[in-house]
């Protein structure tokens, strides 16, 4: 927590900047929806519903937000459109606070690791192109910066680029990367990475996995095999299955989350590439709909731009007016 106290301002500025495109798009749509309207009536609520859905918040979450605002209008009898920004902010914050899946209460800048799990084993999953390997590299850098010993496993052996990229991250961060090269057995890589992490007393082992196999059955079997092999060394490994989603794909990120939760037990989410898109509303929807905590978000290119997700800070940045 001391780290956040020291770098909190920079982190917040990075979050604000990373959400600029989403904010600009959302508020321009919202402005058009209420132009010429003085009060929040059924027509305004219909327009607001369209704005939220087109901002990739998702249908289910949008309906919840609209229902909350409708209840508030009924209770207060009169509500001016000038208040809509602050009302939306309060209701979205309230919705996300109400929906707290187990393990979602991560503190600001939380890159801590459980003291009773050493090494803590993270298996990272996600389709190709979402920023999976880059996220692993940035995670390794964040842990390493905090004095943690890290081992990486290049288990996406179907893509030479993924193996080479992870090796580059290992060299850049200064952490060992276990690799058997391309077209080798991913479970053997995972086994050796966990073995290496145990032997050197590492704090965390992060295993990359293939982004896509030909069928869901193949993917399920591959991930199950990797888990079984790791469990020969550490019975409760992996301790975390982190699904990486590309925020810039909007609703497709929902589909990916749905598909991956069918083939493996996902315990945490990372949503990347939010700085280059106007689809940042997807974070609100995914955080609300899946009973899986959003643990990290990517809001820029720098290592520090992979941030621990804080719901209230996110909502604050989303609704912060540009000065």
TrEMBL record:
<feature type="binding site">
    <location>
        <begin position="208"/>
        <end position="212"/>
    </location>
    <ligand>
        <name>GTP</name>
    </ligand>
</feature>
<dbReference type="InterPro" id="IPR004390">
    <property type="entry name" value="SR_rcpt_FtsY"/>
</dbReference>
<comment type="function">
    <text>Involved in targeting and insertion of nascent membrane proteins into the cytoplasmic membrane. Acts as a receptor for the complex formed by the signal recognition particle (SRP) and the ribosome-nascent chain (RNC).</text>
</comment>
<keyword id="KW-0547">Nucleotide-binding</keyword>
<keyword id="KW-0342">GTP-binding</keyword>
<feature type="binding site">
    <location>
        <begin position="272"/>
        <end position="275"/>
    </location>
    <ligand>
        <name>GTP</name>
    </ligand>
</feature>
<protein>
    <recommendedName>
        <fullName>Signal recognition particle receptor FtsY</fullName>
        <ecNumber>3.6.5.4</ecNumber>
    </recommendedName>
</protein>
<keyword id="KW-0963">Cytoplasm</keyword>
<dbReference type="InterPro" id="IPR003593">
    <property type="entry name" value="AAA+_ATPase"/>
</dbReference>
<comment type="subunit">
    <text>Part of the signal recognition particle protein translocation system, which is composed of SRP and FtsY.</text>
</comment>
<keyword id="KW-0378">Hydrolase</keyword>
<dbReference type="InterPro" id="IPR036225">
    <property type="entry name" value="SRP/SRP_N"/>
</dbReference>
<feature type="domain" description="SRP54-type proteins GTP-binding">
    <location>
        <begin position="293"/>
        <end position="306"/>
    </location>
</feature>
<keyword id="KW-1003">Cell membrane</keyword>
<keyword id="KW-0472">Membrane</keyword>
<dbReference type="GO" id="GO:0006614">
    <property type="term" value="P:SRP-dependent cotranslational protein targeting to membrane"/>
</dbReference>
<dbReference type="GO" id="GO:0003924">
    <property type="term" value="F:GTPase activity"/>
</dbReference>
<comment type="similarity">
    <text>Belongs to the GTP-binding SRP family. FtsY subfamily.</text>
</comment>
<dbReference type="GO" id="GO:0005525">
    <property type="term" value="F:GTP binding"/>
</dbReference>
<dbReference type="InterPro" id="IPR000897">
    <property type="entry name" value="SRP54_GTPase_dom"/>
</dbReference>
<keyword id="KW-0675">Receptor</keyword>
<dbReference type="GO" id="GO:0005737">
    <property type="term" value="C:cytoplasm"/>
</dbReference>
<dbReference type="Pfam" id="PF02881">
    <property type="entry name" value="SRP54_N"/>
</dbReference>
<dbReference type="InterPro" id="IPR027417">
    <property type="entry name" value="P-loop_NTPase"/>
</dbReference>
<dbReference type="GO" id="GO:0005047">
    <property type="term" value="F:signal recognition particle binding"/>
</dbReference>
<dbReference type="Pfam" id="PF00448">
    <property type="entry name" value="SRP54"/>
</dbReference>
<dbReference type="GO" id="GO:0005886">
    <property type="term" value="C:plasma membrane"/>
</dbReference>
<dbReference type="InterPro" id="IPR042101">
    <property type="entry name" value="SRP54_N_sf"/>
</dbReference>
<feature type="binding site">
    <location>
        <begin position="126"/>
        <end position="133"/>
    </location>
    <ligand>
        <name>GTP</name>
    </ligand>
</feature>
<dbReference type="InterPro" id="IPR013822">
    <property type="entry name" value="Signal_recog_particl_SRP54_hlx"/>
</dbReference>
């Amino acid at each position: 927590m001391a780290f956040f106290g020291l770098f909190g301002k920079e982190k917040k500025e990075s979050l604000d900047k990373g959400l600029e495109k989403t904010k600009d798009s959302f508020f321009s749509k919202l402005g058009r929806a209420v132009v010429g309207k003085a009060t929040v009536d059924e027509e305004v609520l219909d327009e607001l519903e369209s704005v939220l859905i087109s901002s990739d918040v998702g249908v289910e979450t949008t309906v919840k937000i609209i229902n909350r605002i409708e209840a508030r209008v009924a209770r207060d009898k009169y509500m001016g459109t000038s208040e809509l920004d602050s009302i939306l902010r309060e209701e979205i914050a309230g919705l996300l606070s109400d929906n707290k899946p187990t393990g979602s209460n991560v503190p600001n800048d939380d890159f801590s690791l459980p003291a009773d799990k050493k090494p803590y084993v993270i298996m990272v999953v996600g389709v190709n192109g979402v920023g999976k390997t880059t996220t692993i590299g940035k995670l390794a850098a964040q842990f390493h910066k905090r004095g943690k010993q890290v081992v990486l496993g290049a288990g996406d052996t179907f893509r030479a680029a993924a193996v080479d990229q992870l090796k580059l991250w290992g060299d850049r961060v200064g952490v060992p990367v276990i690799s058997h090269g391309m077209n080798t057995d991913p479970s053997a890589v995972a086994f050796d990475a966990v073995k290496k992490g145990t032997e050197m007393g590492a704090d965390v082992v992060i295993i990359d996995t293939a982004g896509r196999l030909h069928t869901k059955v193949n993917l399920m079997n591959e991930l199950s095999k990797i888990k079984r092999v790791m469990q020969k060394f550490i019975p409760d490994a992996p301790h975390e299955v982190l699904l990486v989603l590309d925020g810039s794909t909007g609703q497709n990120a929902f589909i990916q989350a749905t598909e991956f939760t069918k083939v493996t037990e996902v315990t945490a989410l990372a949503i990347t590439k939010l700085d280059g898109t106007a689809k940042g509303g997807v974070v609100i929807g995914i955080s609300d709909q899946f009973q899986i905590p959003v643990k990290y978000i990517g809001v820029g290119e720098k290592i520090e731009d992979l941030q621990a997700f804080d719901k209230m800070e996110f909502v604050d940045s989303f609704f912060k007016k540009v000065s």
